[in-house]
Known about the structure:
- By secondary structure, the chain is mainly α.
- It has one domain (23-98): Orthogonal Bundle (Cytochrome Bc1 Complex, Chain D, domain 2), CATH 1.10.760.
- 57% of the residues lie in helices and 0% in strands.
- The chain has helices at 2-38, 63-72, 87-98.
Amino acid sequence: MRFLVLTMMLGLIAAPAFAAESAADADKDAANIFNSTCGWCHQGGGRVAGGIGPKLMNSERDDEFILNRIRQGKEGKMPAFGGSLNDAQIQALLRYIRNLKPEN
Length: 104
């Protein structure tokens, strides 16, 4: 019984570290996710206007709007990615978008 309790406690302690590692992995892959999923419509890695989708760099939209748009899409304009991307990947895409800088 003590072994079971100890195992459960260690699992609870280890869970946040696993979640952080998953987010870190998603951040590392965010550019690839963006390029393969979003880059078809958001030109120049989201840095320039003129594509099918709007420029994302320096977007005035709030984080919640962007997260919801990625998850739910917009009928006739943008597909929903909430079924194909997990929350860590969607959060990583938001961070990618917020950190966009002009290309040199």
